[in-house]
């Protein structure tokens, strides 16, 4: 039973703030003794540009060896033993479970005779796909039944043009390698053999006859770590075997592309193929499928921009591009002669970054204004219809659908407001609430504030800080500083259940929009790449210094957190400024910058990082900040919990293994260094809810314990909610 008396909860919150400030840290905690497992050194010597580099733990890159497996088991045992002794870890798990347990509903979409939507009853490990017809709601696909431990997840879900056949992909154990299953929609009978060995792929139908998908040849050696660098686009004709699938693009050995994708237009007239060697910049081609044996025509045949199709009307193509427009614009061109010199500006570039969606015969231009959403509606002639007034300051998504639909949906969220769905009337711009979460979290008790601070070189950087209302700026608030800063990815406000639990305990959650991200367009992204990557770390360090200076927290109560490229951010920051924070939480991080490009599709990240083989200058720059290569004997590093998954074939776990081994060997002082390796888990997508709750119980428990908290700051909040 959930207590719903707001006044009691409010009183509890006020009371626990007083308790937290006055006495939560009075008693010094007993430390937990850790005997680190010995990690054997087996030096491998590399010579790059005349420089000798010794890799003592290269053997940990062999994810198929029994020796590596035993190392992981031993490390996990030590970590589990440590975490089990944290007095409030189970209480955190209880509260995370309680708060997670509410119904979550996705926005509906129509395919054929049915309306589909995703739903989670609360604690289901995977979202379930439902469908509705004539008011009757039934389960269509339940990924929770795909495997006994719920580690097989649903990826892409794509319907034929008539909605009578569905192709969906699944991931096993969190791997990026997928299988595609083809099923009759009405009977739910599997129609033919499963397609295997599919990776980094969409599923795009041509009429009702077949679909396009992408994959690599299966690599020699381990499929979880061996290099993959020639991506191909295939066409699968229904009723044929996978071995008969035609290669449409990417087969030429003279011009390899690491990333190839194909998508058809809504009317099935055109196939668009994008080809790239890096995560930034793509070539784009168009093929007229209404003409047999039509040629593949280049729209743009260089890697100088990111350009993609958003919509077509007959042969008129609407393209989104950042070519000569760092903040992106929309252009039109005829598919029969689509060269760049024929492009016509449709929605011009502005001072804010553009992303576009289309539905119901309109375009919806979402602009990021200091990472906050602003949405403008245009018709297909380029006329501005209206600004869509959003429910508040935060992030919106959606406004997409088929061209002939009469209603659209969008969602809105920010750091203290759970995502809410709205039904939108595109004719008059009005909208009504479609679904509001019934969550036991009182958003009004929390507030977000956007601040701007100066980085080391004077660059102004925005940051959103979220916490309980009435927070006292006394330097005594446990704080998580989260960052990413790379790959043109923008961190916009969104609600997170783990972050809500953190803030319930009096925690501050701060997110700066670092260079390397996409918040201010291509120039902002480029300012954090390759020989300018240090700007990202400087921005993050300056954010920490701001929080300390303004007395949100102190170095003893600051944790830094990030995943993937954000794991690199944490690793570089903690090795450059080890005294700045008390806790470091690098997750699935890119941590060996001299070898990242030798694993799976890592070479495609070179636009952001450069590689150690490019030049002596690039080698020296990378080695200068590579976390694995900058752990020094005799340094007191912060308490560190490295996290990764044993099936992560995007950022292979060897990065985390080697970094943890270096830290454990060279750490000075009593700050603990642990590694937590999740089994049957990958880079993050599709991780079962039960595993996610366990992970955050461990992460928050480790963080607060190493900040010196004997008890949870807000015990009353947890105790007031009873199952």
Description:
It is a single chain. This protein starts with 5 loop residues before the first helix and ends with a helix. A hairpin with a 7-residue loop joins strand 5 (114-120) and strand 6. It contains 12 helices and 39 strands. An 8-stranded mixed sheet has the order 32-33-35-34-36-37-38-39, sandwiched between helices. Strands 3, 4, 5, 6 and 7 form a 5-stranded antiparallel sheet that branches. With 723 residues, it is of the alpha+beta class.
Can you give the mean pLDDT? 91
Assembly type: single chain
Kindly report how far apart the N and C termini lie: 6 Å
The total of helices stands at 12
Strand order within the widest sheet?
32-33-35-34-36-37-38-39
Determine Rg (CA atoms, Å): 26 Å
Global morphology:
globular
Helix content: 10-25%
Low-confidence stretches: 1-28, 716-723
Amount of beta strand: 25-35%
State the total count of DSSP E strands.
39
| Structure classification | alpha+beta
Largest sheet properties = 8 strands, mixed
Task: Summarize the topology.
Blueprint: H1 6-23, E1 44-48, E2 51-55, H2 66-84, H3 89-100, E3 104-105, E4 109-111, E5 114-120, E6 128-133, E7 136-141, E8 152-159, E9 165-172, E10 177-184, E11 195-199, E12 204-206, E13 210-216, E14 231-237, E15 246-249, E16 259-264, E17 270-276, E18 283-288, E19 296-300, E20 307-313, E21 316-321, E22 329-334, E23 344-347, E24 353-359, E25 362-369, E26 372-379, E27 384-388, E28 395-398, E29 408-414, E30 417-424, E31 431-435, E32 446-454, E33 460-468, E34 479-482, H4 497-504, E35 508-512, H5 522-526, H6 534-549, E36 558-563, H7 565-576, E37 583-587, H8 606-609, H9 616-625, E38 639-645, H10 654-666, E39 673-678, H11 689-706, H12 715-719
Parallel strand pairs: 34-35, 34-36, 36-37, 37-38, 38-39
Antiparallel strand pairs: 1-2, 3-5, 4-5, 5-6, 6-7, 8-9, 9-10, 10-11, 12-13, 13-14, 14-15, 16-17, 17-18, 18-19, 20-21, 21-22, 22-23, 24-25, 25-26, 26-27, 28-29, 29-30, 30-31, 32-33, 33-35
Helix pairs in contact: 3-11, 6-7
């Amino acid at each position: 039973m959930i207590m719903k008396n707001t006044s009691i909860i409010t009183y509890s919150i006020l009371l626990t703030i007083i308790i937290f400030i006055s006495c939560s840290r009075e008693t010094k905690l007993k430390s937990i003794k850790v005997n680190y497992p010995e990690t054997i050194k087996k030096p491998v010597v590399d010579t790059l540009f005349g420089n000798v580099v010794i890799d003592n733990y290269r053997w940990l890159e062999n994810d198929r060896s029994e020796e590596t497996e035993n190392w992981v088991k031993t490390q996990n045992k030590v970590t589990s033993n440590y975490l089990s002794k944290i007095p409030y870890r189970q209480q955190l798990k209880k509260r995370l479970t309680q708060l997670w347990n509410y119904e979550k509903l996705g926005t509906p979409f129509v395919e054929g005779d049915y309306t589909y939507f995703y739903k989670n009853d609360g604690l289901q490990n995977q979202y379930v796909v439902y469908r509705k017809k004539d008011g009757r709601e039934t389960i269509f696909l339940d990924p929770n039944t795909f495997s006994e431990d719920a580690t097989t997840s649903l990826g892409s879900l794509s319907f034929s043009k008539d909605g009578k056949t569905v192709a969906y992909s699944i991931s096993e154990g969190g791997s990026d390698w997928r299988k595609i299953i083809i099923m009759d929609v009405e009977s739910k009978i599997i129609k033919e053999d499963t397609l295997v060995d599919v990776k980094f792929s969409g599923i795009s139908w041509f009429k009702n006859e077949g679909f396009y998908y992408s994959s690599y040849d299966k690599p020699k050696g381990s499929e979880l770590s061996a290099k993959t660098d020639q991506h191909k686009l295939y066409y699968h004709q229904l009723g044929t075997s996978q071995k008969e699938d035609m290669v449409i693009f990417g087969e030429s050995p003279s011009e390899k592309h690491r990333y190839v994708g194909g998508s058809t237009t809504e009317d099935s007239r055109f196939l668009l193929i994008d080809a790239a060697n890096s995560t930034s910049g793509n070539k784009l081609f168009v093929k007229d499928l209404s003409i047999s044996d039509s040629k593949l025509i280049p729209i743009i045949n260089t890697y100088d921009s990111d350009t993609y199709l958003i919509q077509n009307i007959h042969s008129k193509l609407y393209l989104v591009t950042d070519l000569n427009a760092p903040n992106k614009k929309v252009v039109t061109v005829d598919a029969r002669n689509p060269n760049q010199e024929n492009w016509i500006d449709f929605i011009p570039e502005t001072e804010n970054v553009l992303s576009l969606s289309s539905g119901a015969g309109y375009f919806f231009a979402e602009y990021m204004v200091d990472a906050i959403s602003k949405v403008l509606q245009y018709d297909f002639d380029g006329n501005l219809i209206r600004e869509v007034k959003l429910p508040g300051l935060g992030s919106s998504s959606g406004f997409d659908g088929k061209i002939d639909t009469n209603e659209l949906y969008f969602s809105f969220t920010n750091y203290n407001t759970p995502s809410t769905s709205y039904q939108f009337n595109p004719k008059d711009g009005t909208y009504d609430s479609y679904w509001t979460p019934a969550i036991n979290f009182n958003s009004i008790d929390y507030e977000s504030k956007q601040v701007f601070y100066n980085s080391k070189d004077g660059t102004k950087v925005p940051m959103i800080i979220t916490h309980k209302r009435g927070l006292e700026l006394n330097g005594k608030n446990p704080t998580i500083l989260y960052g990413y800063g790379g790959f043109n990815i923008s961190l916009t406000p969104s609600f997170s259940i783990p972050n809500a639990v953190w803030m319930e305990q009096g925690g501050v959650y701060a997110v700066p929009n670092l260079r390397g991200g996409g918040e201010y367009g291509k120039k902002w992204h480029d300012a954090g790449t390759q020989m300018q990557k240090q700007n990202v770390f400087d921005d993050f360090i300056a954010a920490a210094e701001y929080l300390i200076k303004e007395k949100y927290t102190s170095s003893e109560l600051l944790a830094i957190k990030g995943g993937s490229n954000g794991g690199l951010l944490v690793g570089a920051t903690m090795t450059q400024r080890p005294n700045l924070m008390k806790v470091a939480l690098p997750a699935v991080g890119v941590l060996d910058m001299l070898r990242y490009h030798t694993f799976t599709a890592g070479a495609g990240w070179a636009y952001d990082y450069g590689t150690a083989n490019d030049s002596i200058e690039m080698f020296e720059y990378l080695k200068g900040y590579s976390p694995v290569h900058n752990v020094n004997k005799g340094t007191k590093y912060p308490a560190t919990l490295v996290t990764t998954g044993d099936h992560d074939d995007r950022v292979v776990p060897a990065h985390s293994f080697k970094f943890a081994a270096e830290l454990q060997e060279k750490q000075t002082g009593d700050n603990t260094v642990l590694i937590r390796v999740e089994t049957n888990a990958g880079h993050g997508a599709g991780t079962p809810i039960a595993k996610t709750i366990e992970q955050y119980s461990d992460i928050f428990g480790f963080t607060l314990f190493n900040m010196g908290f004997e008890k949870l700051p807000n015990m009353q909040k947890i105790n007031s909610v009873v199952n």
